[in-house]
């Protein structure tokens, strides 16, 4: 080929686009197809969000506010953190890219769990950095192993809590022990995409650690429990100086007007969020019981998905479930063959899935 493609890009895993549901239905001749693969919210977004979006239609000819003032203001009121400590991006995906490009030079290292969110790896490689993965034999993150892996090249450690794709989580004591030991020159990215679903009692409010640990960055999103994945809006908290740098990197109009307005409304509808979390907790209990009855060993989850060892060919299970109209994530795609990851859905769909 005539073009010069960067070696870092060539070394990345090939992107395989999934088919849209409409296409799967057409190909398989199915009336309904239930997607339980991407950890989306089966209850959708709050009805108030949808109303707000209709009203917002009037203003689509204007560029959105590049500083997402209204949303940062609302988040500031709700968390007690200053607006200068908050950044909004087009999904937390976008913020992971911003963080990688702010800190990483070629040859630097990042540390992440062996089975954790793939975008940490891809974005690090894009910058020419090396990815050091720590062992997760029991499918949970081991913060002590991450500390042991720190070298003078380490720039970032990614803590995904609850962790995708395993659903496992760590509590307050573990986080505090980690923060005390991690060198202050290493950025700690605490990705809490699924935090709203957490039910363990010893969970923490990560924002309480921002004052003491200037190297801590907390990422959250409206894509999961708030049911707004398609709107692309994620947010982060960090020291104001860092937020200032991140805002130099993020695309100025990354967060569209609908996303900003909808996110403010979503935060205000606390009742809807409670219903979503309660439905997820019911679904989780259902899966635990069913899997125990089947003698399958699963990872205890604090998220809206569950991973388990089927002891069978996961790709075959994936294909056969697809024929029956259920799309799940096979472990082969996640580097954990034999396992499947299933997003917890409404009880109707959970029951239908289990029958299938
Ligand atoms: N972090 C984790 C752990 C995720 O699972 C996801 C979504 N799959 C994201 C970040 C990105 O979410 P979004 O860009 O939709 O905010």
UniProtKB/TrEMBL annotation:
Enzyme type, top EC level: transferase
Catalytic activity, as annotated: L-histidinol phosphate + 2-oxoglutarate = 3-(imidazol-4-yl)-2-oxopropyl phosphate + L-glutamate
EC number: 2.6.1.9
Biological processes annotated in GO: L-histidine biosynthetic process
Cited Pfam families: Aminotran_1_2
Residues where N6-(pyridoxal phosphate)lysine is found: 224
Keywords of the record: Amino-acid biosynthesis, Aminotransferase, Histidine biosynthesis, Pyridoxal phosphate, Transferase
GO molecular function (one): histidinol-phosphate transaminase activity
Subunit structure, interactors included: Homodimer.
Family affiliation: Belongs to the class-II pyridoxal-phosphate-dependent aminotransferase family. Histidinol-phosphate aminotransferase subfamily.
Annotated protein name in UniProt: Histidinol-phosphate aminotransferase
